[in-house]
Amino acid sequence: MGVLWTSTDAAAATRGQATQAFAATGISIDTRSLRPGDLFIALKDVRDGHEFVRAALDKGAAAALVSRIPEGCSTDDPLLIVPEVLPALEALGRAGRARSRARVLAVTGSVGKTSSKEMLRAVLSAQGTVHAAEASFNNHWGVPVTLARMPADADFAVIEIGMSNPGEIAPLAKLARPHAAMITTVAPAHLAAFESIEGIAHEKASIFEGLEPGGVAVIPTGLGVSPILREAAQAAGEMLTFGPDPGSDYRLVEARIAGDATVVRAEHRGRPILFKVMTPGRHFATNALGVLALAEAAGCDPMVTAMDLGAWEPPAGRGQRERIYMDVVDEGESFDLFDDAFNANPASMEAALEVLAGASPRDGVGRCAKGRRIAFLGDMLELGADEVALHAAIARHPAMEKVDLVHMAGPCMVHLRDALPRAKRGEWHETAAALAERARHLVDPGDVVLVKGSKGSKVSLVVDALKKLRQPGAAEAHKGKE
């Protein structure tokens, strides 16, 4: 790995003072994931990052960005001393962006930010070197870290920008200075901080305030708030659209789920496009069209990009599907698991239930003669005053007709339990941990199982419990038999 920041360059960017010369090959804000050669950033959260500087240096950090000499350290250690750490990190990100030759693309939206970012990583990798945000590095720490980590010679950079409160997106967009920016969709999320979905739309649209001159705004059609997005996009400069509406630059004609994939039929300014996304879900098809538009804005060929979309698979916790084999010999002793436990709001919950409804259980292989579609659902958080109604409304979604049983965890999910028909009402527990303890008793071979909830609901514990039913070596033994 090449040198990312020398002490001279980092000191110039941050206006700090280096106690010793150093050459850093990476950036870290967490000693648990720090790699030798990283520049450790001593940010303050629940605990002060200065408390971990000595441990970071002992673990092999090239240096530490600090506002004072930490306990256990001295000027003999490689430290970059600045007045305040977070502004210095932002300055480092700004300098990383300034020296880059990359076409910078930014993604925001209520649903699908990370999936779209990972789609872009996959398709752009075939047309150049790509630098993209790790995990969900999309906040006031994550965006400058991503920019500071950017290799100067990258061809493309994909920046994910999120928000929890008003006024957060525009400053991050201005830091990233994208050549093109995309809004995946606008849906009820973070309503505890916003008065209406229109307020969310205005906040999402503020990403276009950071566009470089001549930049391209990519927006979805078919939403009630699409006129708000369109007005902001037109004010920013060039605009590309994607979605179901006639006249969209990338128009979705049909999204057909075929097994573990989605076959997408679309039109690009009247020209037909047919491609496949290797995961089921209409929402993935729509996101893929936005990715095509954003890739076009980056100068890529839409047809080549469409073919490369087949190389992408969703990351764990975001709709990933796998078969859990519970027996090395008998492949029938298995069930299918949709791990969508990373986050949830009403729009993503509906999308996940549609995928579950379209899945095919297997009959005659388990204790129950008929395979079932089962959902394990955790609370959707940060929905504000409407949280009771929004949880209860899940019961009325058309996809729920094909769901056989719903198990729930969390205080908000009580309202879904009460709204469900008794025949579909499974177990409810106060916590996801309690539901996880019961999970192995609630599934059967042949079932298709969805786990979905906000990250804070900790419903990923249910995923962990279900994956522990996997027999070691069984997946390898049955490979190719599905």
UniProtKB/TrEMBL annotation:
<dbReference type="GO" id="GO:0005737">
    <property type="term" value="C:cytoplasm"/>
</dbReference>
<keyword id="KW-0573">Peptidoglycan synthesis</keyword>
<dbReference type="GO" id="GO:0009252">
    <property type="term" value="P:peptidoglycan biosynthetic process"/>
</dbReference>
<dbReference type="InterPro" id="IPR013221">
    <property type="entry name" value="Mur_ligase_cen"/>
</dbReference>
<dbReference type="Pfam" id="PF02875">
    <property type="entry name" value="Mur_ligase_C"/>
</dbReference>
<dbReference type="GO" id="GO:0047480">
    <property type="term" value="F:UDP-N-acetylmuramoyl-tripeptide-D-alanyl-D-alanine ligase activity"/>
</dbReference>
<keyword id="KW-0547">Nucleotide-binding</keyword>
<feature type="domain" description="Mur ligase C-terminal">
    <location>
        <begin position="326"/>
        <end position="454"/>
    </location>
</feature>
<dbReference type="GO" id="GO:0071555">
    <property type="term" value="P:cell wall organization"/>
</dbReference>
<dbReference type="InterPro" id="IPR036565">
    <property type="entry name" value="Mur-like_cat_sf"/>
</dbReference>
<keyword id="KW-0131">Cell cycle</keyword>
<feature type="binding site">
    <location>
        <begin position="109"/>
        <end position="115"/>
    </location>
    <ligand>
        <name>ATP</name>
    </ligand>
</feature>
<dbReference type="GO" id="GO:0008766">
    <property type="term" value="F:UDP-N-acetylmuramoylalanyl-D-glutamyl-2,6-diaminopimelate-D-alanyl-D-alanine ligase activity"/>
</dbReference>
<keyword id="KW-0961">Cell wall biogenesis/degradation</keyword>
<comment type="function">
    <text>Involved in cell wall formation. Catalyzes the final step in the synthesis of UDP-N-acetylmuramoyl-pentapeptide, the precursor of murein.</text>
</comment>
<comment type="pathway">
    <text>Cell wall biogenesis; peptidoglycan biosynthesis.</text>
</comment>
<feature type="domain" description="Mur ligase central">
    <location>
        <begin position="107"/>
        <end position="295"/>
    </location>
</feature>
<dbReference type="InterPro" id="IPR004101">
    <property type="entry name" value="Mur_ligase_C"/>
</dbReference>
<dbReference type="InterPro" id="IPR035911">
    <property type="entry name" value="MurE/MurF_N"/>
</dbReference>
<dbReference type="GO" id="GO:0051301">
    <property type="term" value="P:cell division"/>
</dbReference>
<dbReference type="InterPro" id="IPR051046">
    <property type="entry name" value="MurCDEF_CellWall_CoF430Synth"/>
</dbReference>
<keyword id="KW-0963">Cytoplasm</keyword>
<dbReference type="GO" id="GO:0008360">
    <property type="term" value="P:regulation of cell shape"/>
</dbReference>
<keyword id="KW-0436">Ligase</keyword>
<keyword id="KW-0133">Cell shape</keyword>
<keyword id="KW-0067">ATP-binding</keyword>
<comment type="similarity">
    <text>Belongs to the MurCDEF family. MurF subfamily.</text>
</comment>
<dbReference type="GO" id="GO:0005524">
    <property type="term" value="F:ATP binding"/>
</dbReference>
<dbReference type="Pfam" id="PF08245">
    <property type="entry name" value="Mur_ligase_M"/>
</dbReference>
<protein>
    <recommendedName>
        <fullName>UDP-N-acetylmuramoyl-tripeptide--D-alanyl-D-alanine ligase</fullName>
        <ecNumber>6.3.2.10</ecNumber>
    </recommendedName>
</protein>
<dbReference type="InterPro" id="IPR005863">
    <property type="entry name" value="UDP-N-AcMur_synth"/>
</dbReference>
<dbReference type="InterPro" id="IPR036615">
    <property type="entry name" value="Mur_ligase_C_dom_sf"/>
</dbReference>
<keyword id="KW-0132">Cell division</keyword>
